[in-house]
UniProtKB/TrEMBL annotation, chain B:
Pfam family membership, one: SSF
Lineage: Bacteria, Pseudomonadati, Pseudomonadota, Gammaproteobacteria, Alteromonadales
Keywords: Ion transport, Membrane, Sodium, Sodium transport, Symport, Transmembrane, Transmembrane helix, Transport
Family: Belongs to the sodium:solute symporter (SSF) (TC 2.A.21) family.
InterPro entries assigned: DUR, Na/Glc_symporter_sf, Na/solute_symporter, Na/solute_symporter_CS
Protein name: Urea transporter
Annotated organism of origin: Idiomarina seosinensis
GO BP term (any one): sodium ion transport
GO terms for MF: symporter activity; urea transmembrane transporter activity
Membrane-topology descriptor: Multi-pass membrane protein
Amino acid sequence: MQIPELFFSVLIIAALVITCLTPVILLALFIKDYFSKTIW
Amino acid sequence: MTEFALDTSVGLTIVVLFGIGWILFGYWLGRKNKTHEDFALAGRNVGFAFAAATAMATWVTSNTTLVAPQLTYQFGLWGMIGYSFAALGLLLFAPMAKRIKQLLPNGYTSGDFVRLRYGQVAWWVFIIISVVYAFGWLISLGMAGGILLESLSGLDYHIGMTAILIICVGYTLFGGMRAVIATDFIQALIIIVGVSVIAYWLIDNVGLDSIHQNLSAEHPQLLDVLFPAAVMFLFNNIFFGLGEIFHSNVWWSRALSFKKDVAYKAYLTGGLMWLPIPIVTGFIALAAPQLGIFPPSADMIGPTVAAAVLGKAGAIVVFIVIFSALASSLDSLLAATSDLVTQDLFHKKFKPKASDKTLMRFNRYCILGLGIMTWLFCLPRIATLGALLNFAGAFVASTIWPIVLGLYQRKLSGSYAAAAMAFGTLSGLVGYFAIGFYVAALISCAVSGVICWVGVVNSQRLFDWRQLNEEN
């Protein structure tokens, strides 16, 4: 049984969107740690 | 396009520039290391941003960027979904990391835990498994470095492999855990941005519908949701991932180096951020048949597709992404394994009264020694990355139950834990050779689990958790 095209597309696009959000989250966390002096 | 996507001189220039940059950065960070605890565990004071990034970046290895596309190319959809399930290892380790910080406030390594919880026999079995796994992973990473440079720029495999080892050993030697974690943060950003750019380009220029249609017509098994070997691979990969993370000092030393209350949320966040990455890198491989790309070696499918569709710029992006992925894991493994040797063997077995300065110096020698040994093992290109990786699955999956039960269940004794790890590993190896790589971790975990269950049922004694709080 093959995966339908719609499900295939949703899977790939959802994965890509979450991946693209990751650097934003990491940078936001870094800025927060930097100003609260809790990086190390 | 020429035979190689990049000129050899461009590849070398990138390696040299990155190498100098990382080593100087490592040296700069290393100035803050005053004690062995600073060097090995970054002063046990790593904040949330670096902690989450290092959890994610360390798990993004050559295996995610090279093997996830390779397995997708071989197993289709389940290859990438199965690979992404390895995120479960990070997610499930989150509560364990919190407990590790509570039970071993002065601990250094996973070996410390096994020794204190289960005694000497189990410790020896555990150390053998850890060393086999650490070398398997180190060699797979070193080989991947050589393969990457060779396939993208035509640079000789041995020169490329040597270069990446020198760079990683260099900055880990100077900066210790602080350098490992700080470089992981930057490498995580590079990896994610690079992978996203390549995947977006494929969607925009080749099209998801077009890729799906081509696969349906020409390679329908790659879209099959009932591909038996692939479904088996999915479950095998889950247990492999759990075994890798639960036992390896790479993850224990991180848990111990994070600030109090950071360990749980860092591993949870790192796991969630990692989850979609194998799907994105695997998707790149699914575009290969439509683009008429059939690489000679399956583990180069991802880089070959990216380099082919994006040309020279794409080849540079791929080069930097995989270089970062390799470095982020290699440095972690060098640091964690040298900590294990320094703390568990040198300090606890041979020099219990060694000074802090001696431990720090020995730790640095270990990093150097590990780098040299890895280089020697990498000289012959002995296996594809996937084969090497899955061989280690038989070893690490046997540790899942002893580690989990050791942290939460007071009944399991050392003799049963040792037997579970030893017989689990042997059974997994039998499965690996008799059936296939995709059952090694499954069998190993199942046999180990049965022995642990018998051990818990038969146990008459309860372990006292306070014994884990050892003063160094």
